[in-house]
Specification:
The complex is a heterodimer of chains A (545) and B (309). With 545 residues, chain A is mostly helical. In chain A, 66% of the residues lie in helices and 1% in strands. The longest helix of chain A is centred in the C-terminal third of the chain and has 51 residues, at 393-443. The chains are: A mainly alpha (545), B mainly alpha (309).
């Protein structure tokens, strides 16, 4: 049990709970809780070298890389702010980052938090649409057009056809899905690049929806009628959720619905057969086809689901009456393109997309609260720089993996060299001892009175011949050798003669057990020799007068 | 009718320039979706030079300096794509999309900052300039830049198919490992391809904004023209003269959507929105017909690593 990580994890969770109870902004509590959960999950010790190091886990790497992208984006935004007007730059940047917290009253905070949440939902759905198709190898840039199609269908059903909200939502999903299916069919059957067909369909759809929504336009306001007045039944119900946020008028059940859909997408992608087939098609289309998966059908199905998600997202925005469709939209709304940003920032994971879309909407709304000396487009500048940095995520992850691998390798090399030097030293120590004894015998010193050879004390004796390397190691240090060897999973072969033979030692290095036996044998022999010498000496001494 | 002709020439030259730029980049193996961002930056560079040059400069000097500025701005911006996709092996489609978003945002921020610095009551993202020097015949839309575009078309064909550099460039997009084995520096070639696409894209952006209007609002970027140019490139099967024909087709229909109100029989034929959609519908139909045997450079989009099989 890695106690340190466990303690920090528990502390984080306790802190999160306290903050929640105290009524502080829930974001901080949620973030702390997430961090605590992650730490707890990683506090269990996995045995030895089979555990993936923390920094090599894919989730950790992706999160760290995304955080790095965000930091770099904010830094570049700050530099731009400084260039424009150095005085208010820090305040502007903190306004962008704080968004609703920059309001002094709690009412203002909650109201703007609600606004951000409401606008996060279509962004989340668009990012889900993009990441779903990206996992299958298709870059669904037509998400913007599918979003427009969904908006058009939802508003038309609501205002012109006076349908209830759920019919409008289904219509929006169908419209988006159909549009995307066109791209899918073209890609599957005629090999038309889905990026280009998506872009073409974006523009075609935009003009079509403009045409479609002309009867729904309120002439006085140059936008579509407000749903509250024309068809309240078309507005997504709130079911009391908005009481959590001071009865915010736009917060609806769309928010938990969208989060549920994100979880559902994750489930489908990772736990179902369909998701498996789709991911396989994305990783290697030919291999999947060879394995029998229906390539064409999968592509069309994927694009349809992507389009349905984007269309549904549009309905979740327009059916809450937050935004209305202006009378002549000149260019495709940016929501679809921001969805690309959110998808990649979230590491192409549905749950990550929830956080990343909230973050992107957070800074976009924060940008609108900046002082007027700075253009509000700074926020979209920061988002685009963040997406640009996201393209380097693969490079960041490779660098992290290389760093971790390098550290692992150095650690193992050190371990191995420790083992080898320990074994060297032991052998050398014993052999030097034997040679020493022989030398002393010839010179006449009493080997039993020779000072103990320890690692600390310098040897004050006739130096051993230079052919043997001097390694001073306590005999006691030899005991942990076995543990070291086991942990490094090093085994020494009898017949292994690949250069591991230390110079000056006869024969090859043997296994641990054999080493132990050898050691015992040598000890016994030494003792016997010593005893013999002593006897001889006594005998000799007796005759030496 | 004259207006139709003028607009056609304008849009054709824009699409042709940008599509040729994209063609160079893709022939070297780098997918360049960020053409729209490059156009915006080129337009920005040229517009700034036009705006801040002294009023009494000779026409030729104005044109020359603006062209150079636009090309330089576009090339600098395309460096973003080059470094990310060649050195850091990033996903080229993603980098291109990021560049599109970044281009519009950065241009808007820059122009607004400049305008606000000059006059605090004017936070608009518009630059005004005098397009006089660009027009061959005053009050008509025949632009010197259109002449330059035709020259560049011929030059592209010659460079790509008749010089060593061009053929080597194309080989890097088809099979970079084979090129490397013969001693071609694939990295340098890809850098060249992307930078050339930046040059031409920037020039295309300048052409776009000087055509027909004396001021340009940078909030709208280039209104999706970069993507249209991508479609033209794919339609033209990555070959310069076919790209020119595709650009002509596109330009004609796009200008039709601007001028159809002047023709009575066209006005009654179809509702206005259909004319707006027409270029895109036509391009989609053409793509459907011609994409089956797509002749895309084989190794495009795949990051090149030396020593990889």
């Amino acid at each position: 049990m890695k106690t340190g990580i466990l303690i920090v994890g528990i502390l984080c969770l306790v802190l999160a709970g306290t903050l929640w109870i105290l009524g502080q902004p829930p974001i901080l509590a949620v973030v702390l809780a997430a961090v605590g959960a992650v730490l707890l999950m990683n506090s269990k010790d996995k045995k030895g070298i089979e555990a993936t190091p923390f920094l090599k886990k894919q989730a950790v790497q992706t999160i760290l890389a995304s955080l790095l992208c965000i930091l770099l984006g904010l830094l570049i935004g700050y530099i731009v702010l400084l260039i424009i007007n150095p005085e208010g730059a820090w305040k502007a940047l903190s306004t962008i980052m704080q968004n609703f917290w920059s309001f002094s009253s709690e009412r203002g905070q909650i109201k703007n938090f609600g606004n951000t949440l409401v606008k996060t939902i279509p962004l989340l759905m668009c990012s889900l649409s993009i990441l779903f198709s990206y996992k299958v190898g298709l870059f669904n840039i037509g998400a913007a057009g599918q979003y427009v199609a969904g908006a058009g269908a939802a508003l038309y059903c609501a205002i012109a056809l006076q349908m209830p909200w759920w019919v409008c939502m289904i219509a929006a999903a169908l419209a988006g899905g159909l549009l995307a299916a066109i791209s899918g069919v073209l890609k599957a059957t005629r090999n038309v690049n889905e990026v280009i067909s998506g872009i073409m369909l974006n523009w075609i759809c935009l003009y079509l929806v403009n045409m479609l929504l002309t009867p729904c336009q309120d002439i006085n306001m140059a936008e579509t009628f407000s749903l509250k007045k024309s068809n309240p039944g078309a507005m997504i119900p709130t079911l009391g959720i908005n009481s959590l946020l001071n009865n915010h008028q736009y917060v609806t059940i769309a928010i938990p619905m969208a989060i549920l859909i994100a979880v559902l997408i994750w489930y489908v992608m990772t736990k179902t057969k369909l998701g498996y087939e789709l991911r396989a098609t994305g990783l290697n289309k030919d291999a999947a086809k060879y394995a029998g998966m229906k390539g064409h059908f999968n592509i069309i199905l994927t694009m349809t689901i992507s389009g349905a998600l984007a269309g549904l997202g549009a309905s979740m925005l327009y059916l809450t009456d937050t935004a209305k469709w202006p009378s002549a939209v000149a260019s495709v709304p940016a929501m679809g393109f921001n969805g690309i940003a959110a998808a990649f920032l979230g590491g192409l994971h549905p749950i990550g997309a929830i956080f990343s879309s909230f973050f992107i909407q957070h800074i976009t709304d924060g940008g609108s609260f900046m002082e007027k000396t700075y253009p509000a487009e700074i926020a979209s500048l920061v988002s685009s720089v963040i997406i640009y940095m996201c393209a380097f995520v693969l490079y960041f992850r490779q660098t992290m993996t290389k760093a971790v691998d390098g550290r692992e390798e150095r650690r193992r090399a050190k371990l191995v060299s420790q083992v080898r030097s320990a074994m060297h030293g032991e052998l050398e120590g014993e052999l030097s001892g034997i040679v020493q004894a022989e030398i002393e015998k010839s010179v006449g010193q009493d080997p039993a009175e020779a000072p103990e050879r320890t690692a600390d004390a310098p040897v004050e004796m006739i130096p051993a011949p230079d052919v043997l390397p001097k390694v001073q190691l306590k005999k006691e240090d030899a005991a942990p050798l076995d543990d070291l060897l086991e942990r490094a999973a090093v085994t020494w072969d009898d017949d292994d003669d690949d250069g591991l033979v230390p110079i000056g030692v006869e024969g090859s290095v043997t296994s641990v057990q054999e080493k132990k036996d050898k050691k015992e044998k040598k000890d016994k022999k030494e003792k016997k020799d010593k005893k013999d010498k002593k006897d001889k000496k006594d005998k000799k001494g007796g005759s030496d007068k | 009718m004259i207006l139709l002709l003028q607009y056609t020439i304008v849009f054709t030259s824009v699409l042709m320039l940008v599509a040729l730029g994209g063609c160079f980049s893709e022939h070297s193996g780098v997918i360049n979706i960020g053409l729209e961002g490059i156009m915006v930056f080129g337009a920005l560079g040229g517009a700034l030079v036009m705006r801040y040059l002294p009023d009494d400069s000779a026409g030729v000097v104005v044109v020359l300096l603006c062209v150079l500025a636009a090309m330089a701005a576009g090339a600098l911006y395309s460096l973003l794509l080059a470094v990310a996709s060649i050195n850091f092996k990033a996903d080229q489609t993603l980098v291109g999309t990021a560049m599109n978003l970044l281009g519009t945002a950065a241009a808007t921020v820059l122009v607004k900052a400049l305008n606000t610095a000059a006059n605090p009551n004017n936070p608009s993202a518009t630059i005004e300039y005098d397009r006089g020097p660009f027009q061959i015949v005053p009050n008509m839309e025949f632009n010197w830049l259109a002449v330059i575009a035709i020259a560049i078309l011929v030059l592209s064909y010659v460079i790509l198919y008749k010089t060593k550099f061009g053929l080597r460039l194309m080989s890097c997009g088809e099979h970079p490992q084979a090129s490397a084995s013969v001693g071609i520096n694939v990295y340098k070639m890809r850098y060249a391809g992307v930078l050339i696409s930046g040059l031409l894209g920037g020039l295309g952006g300048l052409t776009y904004i000087t055509a027909g209007v004396g001021k340009w609002q940078f909030e709208q970027g280039v209104a999706g023209f970069g993507f249209l140019a991508l479609a033209v490139m794919i339609f033209g099967a990555w070959k310069p003269f076919r790209i020119a024909l595709a650009a002509l087709l596109f330009g004609f229909f796009r200008s039709l959507s601007n001028v159809y109100k002047g023709f009575d029989f066209l006005k009654d034929l179809m509702p206005g929105a259909v004319y707006n959609m027409l270029p895109y519908i036509i391009s989609l139909v053409v793509l459907i017909i011609f994409s089956k045997n797509s002749a895309a450079p084989k190794a495009e989009g795949i990051p090149y690593e030396q020593g990889m099989r």
